[in-house]
From TrEMBL:
The keyword Chaperone does not apply. Keywords: Signal. This is Glycosyl hydrolase family 53. The keyword Hydrolase does not apply. Residues 1-28 form the signal peptide.
Length: 355
């Protein structure tokens, strides 16, 4: 999510109108229509994101446990998010910091994921050192920024190719740059020179209609944080009705662009009001695991069986010990909460893992 570790997402609360390790409601398969340009298929992705906040998170002892827990929900995919940072939204380049997952740690956890039977998506992020919304990044020198960004992308694309990562995202919620189709197409072409799997871009729910380069990618990626109402609710039927105009629009968008749509992120904190602002880490201080679970149920039920839907990658599994700034009882993780039971129901895993 664009508010990685420190930032509180502050996206416009627009009305509800909206690839790797992620979910749809039918049988657990990986069959799909052929990807238009990349090798591989993108469909019925069901999985969970495991972000990193520090250089060695992906090599921590908990890594293997987290992956077993993710697989035990019935997920088939896991997404990893190595992140580079820039100080200001106008900077000409991004850089590694001590919060960037080290390459050896990323290689390590991809190997562990494959051992656990999970497919992987690498989804590199760019964030701001002092927090804030990455959608506000608007470089003063676009040529310099895109040159640096292409080097950033191809670094991870080579790593993805070397480790056998099954899918790659060329960006996440960079709305301040994503209308620049010419420069983005060049960046995508550079990635394709070194990585031959399916490619996506993770557009925010209020950004995806403005992306001019979907035809250069294999699947449309959307971070699906639409508000589903103006007041908290645990009424699953009401939440499903809120999805109806969104899914109608997405069906038409998919048909117009001849691409399936993957929810590259979707998630809800276990706080009262999360359905009114799914993008917020701090919508309230009142725990509401029942509202989180209702939101999970409504999304999976509303999207189940949609032929244009490639799946969902939930944000997110547990934080690493001593790194999360949101208490687990209030955080996005479904682990150990009713939302995990919802995942198991839809993904075919009925009993807890015990981890």
């Amino acid at each position: 999510m664009n508010a990685m570790k420190r930032a509180v997402a502050a996206l416009a609360a627009a009305a509800a109108l909206f690839l790797a390790g992620c979910s749809s409601g039918g049988p657990a398969e990986d069959d799909a229509s052929p990807s238009p340009t990349g090798k591989g298929k993108v469909s019925d992705i069901r999985g969970i994101t495991l972000p990193a906040w520090n250089a060695d998170d992906y090599k921590r002892p908990e890594a293997a446990t987290y992956l077993r827990q993710i697989a035990a929900t019935g997920a088939g995919w896991v997404t990893f998010t190595p992140t580079w940072y820039q100080d200001r939204v106008t900077d000409p380049a991004m850089r590694v910091t001590d919060e960037t997952a080290a390459d050896d740690s990323l290689r390590h956890i991809i190997g562990l994921a494959h051992e656990a039977g999970l497919k992987t998506m690498i989804k590199p992020h760019v964030d701001l050192v002092k927090g804030g919304d990455r959608a506000e990044i608007r470089p003063a020198d676009p040529d310099a920024w895109f040159g640096a960004y292409t080097r950033f992308l191809t670094h991870y694309a080579r790593l993805a190719a070397a480790t056998g990562a099954e899918q790659f995202s060329v960006g996440t919620e960079l709305a301040g740059t994503s209308r620049d189709g010419t420069r983005w197409r060049k960046a995508v072409a550079a990635v394709r020179e070194v990585y031959h799997g399916p490619l996506t871009y993770a557009a925010n729910y209020d950004e995806y209609r403005n992306i001019p380069f979907w035809d250069a990618l294999d699947v449309i990626g959307i971070d699906a944080y639409w508000p589903l109402g103006d007041r908290p609710t645990t009424d699953t039927a009401r939440l499903r009705r809120a999805w109806q105009p969104i899914t109608d629009e997405l069906a038409a968008f998919s048909a117009a662009h001849h691409r399936k749509i993957l929810f590259t992120e979707a998630g809800y904190v276990s706080q009262r009001g999360t359905t009114t602002a799914p993008f917020s880490w701090t919508v309230s201080e009142k725990p509401a695991t029942d509202e989180q679970a209702a939101a999970y149920e409504a999304l999976l039920a509303a999207l189940d069986g949609k032929e244009w839907w490639a799946g969902v990658c939930w944000w997110m599994w547990d934080d690493w010990p001593d790194t999360g700034e949101t208490a687990k009882r209030l955080a996005y993780t479904p682990h150990g909460k009713p939302a995990e039971k919802v995942l198991r129901k839809w993904w075919g895993k009925s009993s807890p893992s015990g981890d």
